[in-house]
Design a protein that fits this description.
The complex is a heterodimer of chains A (about 260) and B (about 250). With about 260 residues, chain A is an alpha/beta fold. Chain A has nine helices and ten strands. Classes of the chains: A alpha/beta (about 260), B mainly alpha (about 250).
Amino acid sequence: MSPGIPDIEMRGVWKSFGDDPKGPGENGATLAGLDLVVQPKTIHVLMGSSGVGKSVTLKHILGLVKPDRGDVLVRGRSVATASDVELREIRRDFAMLFQNAALFDSLNVYENVAFPLREHRKEMSEDEIRARVGELLSRVELENVFEKMPSDLSGGMRKRVGLARALALEPRILLFDEPTTGLDPVTSQIIDDLIVKTTRDLGASSVVISHDVHAALRISDFVSMIWKGKIIETARPADFRRSSLEPVVHFLRSAGAV
Amino acid sequence: MTWLTHLGDFLVFVFESCRWVFRRPFRWRLIVDEMEFIGNQSLFIVALTSLFTGAVFAYQSWMALKIVGTDSLVGMTVAISLARELGPVMTGLVVTGRAGAAIAAKIGIMRVTEQIDALEVMAISPQQYLVGPKIVAAVLALPLLTAIFCLIGNLGAYAVATVVCGIDPGIYVAKLKFFLEPWDLYHGMIKGAVFGGILASVGSYRGYRAKNGAEGVGSATNEAVVYAMVAIFVVDYFLSVIVPSGYRSQG
C-alpha cells in the first residue's frame, strides 16, 4: 500500500435509525456528516459521551451498518458499496475487541482463540494451532487457561482472551469498543498497555472508543471528540488538552484532566 | 414494521441461510452436531408423548367404534391417524417446545452479547455458521422422529387395545396391515420435514433479530414457539390436501 492512503477514511457520513430518528445530531440523525481519518500505525481514540454515535461509527467502519449518505473507505476501498464477498475480504484486515469481549460461550478459551485460525488458516495442523494459541495467550499474559470456559473468567481475563483471539490472524487494523469500561483501575491499565504494545508489535493501527480521558490522552497518537454525530476536534493529545472548544473543555473538565 | 415486511424479511433470511448451506466451506460437522441436539436429544420426550398419545387414542376410538360394532378397526384407525396427522404434528409441536425454543434463545443470546457481530468481523457468515446447519438438521431429523413417534404410538395403542379393550391381537394386526400403506407413513414424514424446517427457521429468525438484552431474548423465545406452532397447524392443513397418501382408506 502506498504511503499517504489512510487506513480508514470516513467522508461526510450520515446515518439515521428508524422512521422517527432520535439521535443526537441534526434532525435526529445518529451520525450527522461525520469525517474521520485514521493514519497507518497510529492509535486513534474516539471520545464522547454515551449515545453520541461512537459504537455506530465503529459499525460503519466494519460495514455492519451502511451509511445513508457519505462514504467509508478502508485502505482506499469503499466499505459502503462493497458486495458481501468484498466485505469479507476487507474484514480480514480487521480485528475487533468487543465491549464484553463477545467470546463464544459454548467454547472454551482454547477453542475461542483457535476459532479464527481453524476458519481461515486451514493449512495449519492441530500442533501448529496449539502452539500459536499458546503464544497468543502468553502475549496477553495469560497462562493455564486453555480449558476454562468464558463464564469462569473475570472481566479482565475475558478481555485478554478476546484480545488474543483478535490478534490471531495478525490484523492490520484493530478496533476496541470501550476496552476498559467496567474494569478496575489496575486491570484497565494492563489492558491499555496491551493495546499499545500489540498495536506497535503488529505495526497495525488501532481505533479505540473510550470514556476514559486520562487513558485516552496517555495511549493515543490522535484523539477525536464526537459531539452530536460529528467529529468536532481531532488533535494530538497535548494539543487536545489545550482545545478551546466548549464540549471538549467541558468533557476534559468533568474528568478532571485540565 | 408491518406483518408483511416481517414476513418478507423472514423469507429472505431463510432463503439466504439455505443458500449458504451450498457454499464453501461446507458445515457437515455442525449439521451432525445439530442433528444430535434436535433429533437424538428429543428421542425420550417424543417416545413418552407418542406412547401415551397412541394409548389414549386407542381407548377413545374403541369407545366410539364399539357403539357401531366396528371395534376391530381400532388398530387401523389409530395407525392411519398417527402416520398422517398425529405423528408429524405432535412431533413438530414437541420439538418446537424443546429445540425451537432453545434455538431462539441460543441465537438470541449470541445476538445481544455481540457474538454474532464477532462472527461477522471474523469474516464468517453467521447465517452459514449458525442458521443453515440448524435448518438442514431439523429437516433431516423430524421425519425420523415422526417415524419413531408412529412406531411407539402404535405399540401403545396395541397394548391398550389388546389388554384393556380385549380386542383380538390377530384381528387388530390383520386390519392394520390391510389398510395402512407406505404412502401413509411417507405423507407424515414429508410433513415432518416441512415442520422441521418451520421450527428451525422461525426459531433462528426470531433469535437473530433479538434486541434489548434478556428481555428481548425472552420475547424472541416466546414468539418463536408461538409462531412456529401456529404455522405448523396452518401448514398442516394445506399439506394434507397437497401431499399424496395411501388410497385404500380414502374409500
